Amino acid sequence: MTTYTRHPSSFKDPSGFIFESEGTIYRQVNQYYAAQYRQLMDSGLYNKLVDRKQLIAHEEVTENFTNSAEWYTTLKPEPVSPVSYPYEWCFEQLQDAALLTLSVLTTALQHGMILKDATPYNIQFHKGKPVFIDTLSFDTYDPKQPWIAYRQFCQCFLFPLYLEHYLKTDIQKILSTYIDGIPVDFVAKLLPLKSRLSLGVWLHVYLQHTATTSPRANKQTAAFSKKKLLDVISHLNNIITNFPASKPYKTTWSNYYEDTILSKEYLQEKEKIIQEFSRQTNARTVLDLGANDGYFSRLFAGQNRQVIATDSDNRCISRLYQEVKQNSLEHILPLMLDIANPSPAIGFHNRERAAFHDRIKPDLVLALALVHHLVIGKNISLPVLAAYFNDIAPELIIEFVPKADEKVQQMLKTRPDTFADYDQTIFEQYFTLYFNIIQKIPVPGTHRILYKMIRKR
Question: What InterPro entries does the annotation carry (predicted)?
Fold first, then answer.
């Protein structure tokens, strides 16, 4: 008998569910959804979206792995890894995911179907681009009904984009709190007065807020023509497309390499060493922690390794994502991550959305120019840090920046030096509890040292 494990996030839709069997991900289609699934496949909609690389492709499997009486067919989708969530995306990633959703919706309408939900969790970034992954989100279009997922689209896509656009600040943590979308009343209270000059804000925020709080809100909606729906989609598309591409505000690290007190020669020497280290590993997946604009992520991606490039700074990830798009860099996935507070397991039973390090399982971790920020900036001690890397890094390339370094001296100007054990000898002492040091090389012209390590177990 085949054993299977149902995915903990796939429990809300009676149309089917995701499960894993013998290391392979499948999607079961239930009898409940049989007619809509056949329409998706027979209408040409599936082929159209797959040809455009907007929908993940699948194979049909005739085996009923779950031995369920509800079973209609089994799908084996193209693998998508790693999985990321909208609260780890920069503004432009959420923007592109929203535009993809509207494009898929428009194409569906041309084939007599519609999206019954509009959540960013239906999107993953695959080979450098967003792709729709929920094959069971399509329903038969009823021309007399409005788009049932309109409110969800606004809460999950439009409202977060409006908030970041007007407030000029990151909103990712808000998305992890409001896992099903930011409520309209919350958004209406947060948006500044100047937002009321926007027709889009009036229509999609304030008018919607008034409608949901009005005593007449629950009354039956009047017939909703296809033209009205296409007008709404066009308006949403124009709003989201026309958000400014450039952000005028600077963030902590968005201009790191332009303003750094370290020279270009440092980066060149460091790159030579990293290149040498990279030739000594067979790692296929790389997690670059504190990647900034992806200088070294690009190095590993150029060797056809899958790189998850993370940084806590929205503008850094935004800039890297724009480069990924412009240059079709299929092997880099830029994500926002605060190492001191990574994405936790959230949702129903704390299992609906997995923690970052439960989803991202790299062969190699890069931690370049990072240790001093964590120890001195975040008060994470060396023994705690060494244990952390032991948990996540089979192989480790790490840079130690001693107190004599100008950057560390700059950090210590604003706080007392209570870090008596922050030196190279003690760093090696704690890390060699878990790792074998394969090689260590000083970066010429600096006090910095680069290490290549392999986990002992």
Answer: SAM-dependent_MTases_sf
